[in-house]
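Hi Prof. W.,

I finally got the ATPase AAA-type core domain-containing protein prediction working! I wasn't sure whether to trim anything, so I left the full sequence exactly as given:
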Amino acid sequence: MKTIIKSLKFSGYKAFEDEVFINFETNKKKYNFNDSVIELVRDEKNLYFNNHLGFIGPNAAGKTSILTVFRIYRVFLSSGVRTFGEGILDPLTGVVDRNFSILNPEDINKNKDYLEITVELVTEEILVKHNLKIKRDFTFFEKIDVHIKKNKNYTWENIFEKNFEDKIDFITYSKYTRFENKRHFIAKEQRESLEIIKKTANIIDSIASSIMTISSETTKMNWTGDLNRLLLRNHHNDEAIKKIQDFLGTIAKSVDPQIAGAQIQKVMINDMPTFNFSFILKNEDKAAWSALSVGTWKIIGIFMKLYLLKQINAKNVYVLIDEIDNSWHPNLTKIFLRLVKSKMFASTTFLFTFHNPYIASEIRHDALYIVSENQEVVNWPEKIKEFSENGAPRLSTKFEIKYLDEVVCSGPENFKAEEIYDFFGE
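And this is what came out:
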């Protein structure tokens, strides 16, 4: 079953006191790049969702925090897949394990009592609205509204309190906290709704495995792991290995002018394949991957993740990338975004932050979100409407770049470059 995030809104996280609304649903024909959408048929209607969202803004505006909220939701769910054992009649009774490892009590806005996250999920059959309120002591309230065909609606509410010791999953080494459900309420007939509850819980929990993060740190450490996964998948196919080698060399030499290509050698040890890989320099010397620059690592890592997603034909995956243009040449960023928007990734959604206004032209207009220094988050059509109401000049790509450049380069009111220069003066 295809599950798509329709929208996410949150409030109470760090500097975001007021509600932020992120909408994935779009009008396919109204905006540019109308092939860069994911299609879902529901109730005999075609629904469309952007397969990429870009967040641009100055430093400390909160762009990374927006991606982190998605991560909090994913990690929160990742440890708590609801169990429907033989002894559990009602899946909402009993206990759940939840992971709050990336959320600290001080992350909750000082003027709010809790972090609130509401995610709308849609499938061909069910529309789910999942609301979470997480308090500083990590007690959490959960409300789930479900709408299915034939106008049937179900609602249930839970309050989970920490009544157990923390535990460690010794497979993943993640720290989980066990919570007990203190109250639950199911609207309408409980027996009739039980199957819907199970299906809905599976839809919600499936999101945990569909959101992945790509960062400078993870790509530096994990791109070799992705490469090995690709090679092991194809270890019987020398032609496929040669193609992966050529791909690796092409990406590396597009970044580092000293690199001429890549070399992959398969070695059999006790009938098990292992792989050694290195890079060929233009002077015909060889260089180990550890000798590459951090910027080259990052670019290879992100493209390798993209290549892996294509090879495994990943479905309904959400990829989070912070500062996509950090240490990249703008042309490489544009190449990446054009790949992202292609039909090859018609079932993958990319969310990324960036600073370079020149790559904004590669983003669908309603998929471009502007994050201001006062934590206001609006998409480009809303901003255009604001301009029009204030008698803005004729809108164009040049106007867009100029405006976004001003947004990115804006700083606090007390920012004075002269004061910084003075520290380096006589």
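The chain has two domains: 1-210+316-411, 217-312. Does that look reasonable to you?

Thanks,
D.
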